Structure formats: structure tokens, C-alpha cells
Amino acid sequence: QDSPSRILDFAAMVFAQTAGDVASLLFGAGSFFERGAWEECRPFFAPGATIRQVTSPSSVPISFDEFIEQMAGPKGGLLGLPKYSQRVVSLTPEGFVEQHAITFTVQGATVELEAVVVVSCQESHAKEGHKFLIKTLDEYVDPSPVMDALRKTQTKKKAAQLPVEPAVDVTGPGTVVLVTGASSGIGEQIALRYAKRGCSLVLAGRRRTPLEQVASTCRGLHQACQALAVVTDVSKAPECSRLVQATIDTFGAVHRLYLNAGASQSCLLEDCTQDTVRELMDTNFYGSTVIAMEALGHLRSAARSSSGAKICVVSSLLGVVAAPRNTSYCASKWALHGFFESLRLELLDWPVSVTLAVAGSGDTPIL
Questions:
Q1: In 10 A of CB 128, how many CB atoms?
Q2: Active site residues per annotation
Q3: Which residues are in coiled coils (predicted)?
Q4: pTM of the predicted model over 0.70
């Protein structure tokens, strides 16, 4: 006779297979969503199921019928049918989490978004049909690439009539890129990508030796690439100010600002101290916001004489959902979203975009 643990293991396996199948039917090649077969999805959704596209902290869920109505209306016609790629599915006790890239054609322009979809399911007791049905589907996505494409289309004629100053090649020499947390992990990879294009780089991090090694590697990837390593602890406001000033003193401008530096947490709140909370907020929240405040005027100046400037904040899935043992970390990332979502709205009349990159799990030293 099977033990209770074996029975639970078997039940979990059946559930996981069903959740994985649902993920493929919704987002795989030739899936319902890729074909625009919205009504065909209905059997996979429980009565009263909700769908929410989370583009800001104020996003609200809608019913499945409201979702179909939206996709059949102007919104669906504007974006066209999606194509999904780079799919990574993680099974959870409640359902599954899927990370993927979405490609749309927006008024003739190809736009790619990165999204994280969190799905919870419930068991169906019907004799026929699917065993597990979707209860909630939350898609976390940054809409700024779509908004940028629409804005460029709408202003194309006006821009053609205006005198244009010599533009900076945003993908090559002449572009100044500032990256925090650049001594390893995501920050290092961002730096290497821009180095291959010959950009001028300012790399910030707390550890001098690995930071200078990354800078040296960058210089060897393109003859035009210049790389300045600035040892910086972003939890200290004076060092943040000094970092931005060093960028301007050395290169005279900043066109790309990648706010990537961060610290992690893995402990219950009862095991944390007040210093733990303050340290995470100082690094993850203030370390990004202070640099953005110091650099904002320079980004606006650079945008006037180029094709635009960009701020990218490397956040986390835990900036939009909660998790145990991460109370202070979640708080710091949720605060980031509120700050930079608001800043994006303040910059609507400026060619300075703000992107919040919601990263899932990854093999980086922070973990």
C-alpha cells in the first residue's frame, strides 16, 4: 500500500504535467494565443477566472469575457497576433510560472517584449474536460517598447520637418553607457554587449579587482571602446554623486543608464534586524534612485542631441509578487517600481525612456 508521501508525490506529478501542457497550449508554437483563438481557450479557464496584465502597481484583473472583448477590439488590432519565444516554464504548487519573449508588429515596426506569466489553477471535478483549470493568470510586462514604437510612428512626420543635429549612433561609438553592479553577473553581461559595439563605458561596483578585469575585457572587444572603472558603493549617496560626475568629467554625457546593483535576502523577518531592512533599502532602492536623480539632467541633455536616452532598472519578479524570506528585498523592489513608473510618466514629453526589467531566477553571484 502506498504511503501518504508517495500518494502526494504522484498527485504532484499529475498536476505538474497538466500545468505544463496548459502552458504549451497557451504559449507554445501555434498555440491558442499565437493564433488569436481566444474563444478556444475558454475550456481551460475556471468559472470566474481572472486575467491581469500588470504594467503598473494599479493594474486590475478582468474577467475572461472582458479579455476576449479587449482582444477583439482596438487593442488586439493595434498589436496584432503575438509570437512567443525563449520560453522557460517553472512548475509551482499552485500552477506554473512562464518567462518568455513576445514579438508584435506595431504599425509596421517589430517590437519585442519580455514577460513573466504567473498562473494559478484549481482542480475540476467535472467528469469530462480538463482536470485542472486556470483560476488566475497574471502577466507582468513592461509596455514601454510598444509605447516607444507608437510614439515614433506618431511623431515621424513632425520630426522630418525639424532641423536635426548630428545624432549619436546609439549602438556604437559615441554612446556613453553607465552600468552599476558591473563587476559580475547581469551588469557584466550588459557591459560586454555594449563594449562589442564600441561604446564608451562607465562601470561601477564595490570590488575593485573584478571591476577592473571587466573593464579590461571590454576594451579588448572593440578598438573604439573606452571603459572607466569607478569603485562605488551605491548604498552611500556621496559615492553615487561622484559616480555620475566622473561619467560627465570623462565622457561629457550619458545616454544609457543601467541601474543593476543590488543585494539579496534569504531569512525570515523574525531573524532579521532593522539594519537588514535599511541596508537592503539603501542598496536596492536609494542606490538606484539617487543615481537616477543625479543623472536625469544629463540624460535629458543627451536626448536633445541624439536619438534619445534610456534608463533601465534591473528589478525582479519579487518586485511585483511577494515571497517568504524576502520581506525587505520585496519591499525594496516594490518601491523601485513605484518610483520609476512615476518617473516614466514625468518623462512622457521627453525622448528619455524608462524600462523596468523584471528578472526571474538566474545564475548570478547575488544568489
A1: 5
A2: 329
A3: none
A4: no
